[in-house]
Amino acid sequence: MDLILKYFPDLTEDQIHKFKQLESLYQDWNLKINVVSRKDIDELYLRHVLHSLGIAKVLQFKKGSKLLDVGTGGGFPGIPLAILFPECQFHLVDSIAKKLKVVDEVVEGLVLTNVKTTHSRVEDIDGKYDFIVSRAVAAMPTFVHWVKGKIAKTQNHDLKNGILYLKGGDLTEELKDYKTTTVYNLNDYFSEDFYETKKVVHLPLKYRG
Fold it and tell me: What is each CA distance from 15 to 8, 43, 45, 58, 82, in whole angstroms?
């Protein structure tokens, strides 16, 4: 938890309380339904919570923003971002029901009123979103295909509406066909070794009515 306060020192008491609760909630539910590896559970704040919040170092979502978290798995990056941005609406989607069971229980345990979940393939989701967030669920071309037509028309941020994607390693080949991407290195924001090769990729997407 100290790690989160190191980089996000201005949290409210309620946010601090919710972030603190994450560890016990995930430890409890992970024993029943394994969504996070045992090693990662021991380093939950470093490998999952802070990693998710890397998106917030790139962009501060404005009040009323709508975000879609695709392939949320155990609730990352959606749940940490929902705690950080309580005035934004988060829609967490995954095609694996047992993972969403854990997400639902964590959301309920935290009393997060700005999160909804759907058990579905993202292609079948209706709605328009300011940004689509995710954590390395597929190569970018596949991901772009999945989320086609889900971007809102109105621009409310300095960054254009589109994808904010947490990825690691060398992305040259994967991103070669996307000339409008901006890659942010998380080791510019976080000093821990874990973030040496971690990145946030922003890919603007056009609105399609």
Answer: 11, 20, 14, 20, 10
Mean pLDDT, to the nearest integer, of 168-191? Answer: 95
Mean pLDDT of 168-183: 93
The two tokens of residue 103 are 């997400």
30/5: higher pLDDT: 5
With beta carbons less than 8 A apart as the criterion, state whether 163 and 134 touch.
Answer: yes
pLDDT number for residue 136? 84
pTM assigned to the model: 0.97
What residues form DSSP beta bridges with 91? 68, 116
From the list 27, 25, 75, 84, the residue with the least C-alpha distance to 54 is: 84
**E strand or H helix that includes residue 89:** strand 89-94
Name the pairing type of β-strands 198-204 and 182-185.
Answer: antiparallel
Q: How many residues appear in the chain? A: 209
With the C-alpha atoms ordered 80, 27, 12, 107, is the resulting torsion angle positive or negative?
positive
What is residue 177's DSSP assignment? T
